[in-house]
Specification:
The protein is an alpha/beta fold. It is 35% helix and 31% strand. It has helices at 43-50, 70-73, 91-102, 107-115, 131-143, 161-176, 188-194, 212-216, 229-239, 262-271, 286-295, and strands spanning 3-14, 17-28, 32-36, 58-63, 66-67, 76-79, 149-153, 180-185, 197-202, 205-211, 221-226, 242-248, 251-256, 276-282. The strands form three sheets. The protein has a six-stranded mixed β-sheet with strand order 6-7-8-3-9-10, with helices on both faces. Strands 2-1-4-5 form a four-stranded antiparallel β-sheet, with helices on one face. A four-stranded antiparallel β-sheet has the order 12-13-11-14, with helices on one face. Helix 4 (107-115) packs across helix 5 (131-143) and helix 5 runs parallel beside helix 6 (161-176).
Length: 296
């Protein structure tokens, strides 16, 4: 796959604080790439460096497999701070100012306002907007000029549950148009529901990078039960292909060895003459995986 952003051994210190520590990641074209970590993990600093607003202390990065340049940055739309517009100007006039800065035609304003569902409020003053509408206007401003990549830093901060859901659906809709999205967030649920790929950061270091589905499949828990828990426990102990086993009432919670499936387990138990009354796989949430990565 073609990468739109490649970061190699990026480093940044603020005095004694190691904000970004030898970070290397690659963002594939067309992906929704989540940068996940608690506050202070280096998310915003990393984005600031690749956008040219923060100087790095070492390492390198490239956009579209080319050295960083002003021309390449024109292919990128970004929202790094909270939405800031002139409060007494309308949405339309605010975007005209953004269009002038970006040197793009005013003709593009209608398109982006319709994408974020604000066309009917184009003549309303910015100060009359709810926080969610302000955030959508910021997304519209980032979309001006048809960027190939959109960067969002904590796009749902301060929103109520309805606003979070609206921004999430908007990001997914934009991604369906083929735009690559890089999304920094500390909200695990939003990353799980929105992103296709994720990197987990902690104190500037990378703990994991890959597809979200791969994170969720790192460790699945198998639940198994039968009518005779004592006989089942003996058989499970003799299986020899279980990494970890815990008893929860009449159920046993298992972590199977790599390459071993529930079919293998069920076949073994049938051969032992044990008929299971319950057998299922319980996937860990991104939150559970995230907390485990941090604890390790």
């Amino acid at each position: 796959m073609e990468n739109v952003l490649t970061i190699s051994n990026l480093d940044k210190r603020y005095g004694k604080i190691h904000a970004v520590n030898n970070l290397s990641i690659a963002v594939e074209k067309g992906s929704v790439y989540g940068i996940l970590g608690p506050n202070g993990s280096g998310k915003t600093t990393t984005l600031g460096i690749v956008l040219g607003v923060v100087n790095s202390g070492g390492g390198s990065f490239s956009w579209f497999n080319e050295p960083n340049s002003k021309q390449n940055r024109k292919r990128i739309g970004a929202i790094l701070e909270q939405p800031l517009f002139y409060p007494y100007l309308s949405a339309l006039n605010n975007l005209k100012i953004v269009a002038d800065i970006k040197q793009v035609s005013y003709d593009d304003i209608e398109r982006v306002l319709k994408i974020v569902d604000l066309w009917e409020r184009k003549d309303s003053k910015f100060k009359t907007f709810s926080y969610g509408m302000k955030q959508r206007l910021a997304i519209a401003s980032a979309l001006l000029g048809n960027p190939e990549v959109l960067i969002f830093d904590e796009p749902t901060n301060g929103l109520d549950p309805r606003g979070i859901a609206e921004i999430r659906e908007l990001i997914i809709d934009i991604a369906r148009q083929g735009i690559t999205i890089i999304l920094a967030s500390h909200l695990l649920d939003e990353v799980q529901k929105t992103c296709s790929h994720v990197v987990v950061l902690h104190k500037g270091e990378k703990l994991f990078e890959g597809k979200v589905e791969d994170v969720l499949n790192l460790s699945n828990t198998v639940e198994v039960a039968s009518n005779n828990a004592q006989i089942l426990e003996i058989a499970l102990n003799e299986f020899g292909k279980i990494n970890e086993m815990k008893r929860n009432g009449e159920q046993f919670l298992l972590s199977l060895s790599e390459g071993i499936t529930t079919t293998d387990l069920n076949t073994y138990l049938i051969d032992k003459g044990i008929i299971v009354s319950h057998l299922s796989v319980r996937k860990k949430s991104l939150e559970e995986q995230f907390l485990e990565l941090l604890s390790e």
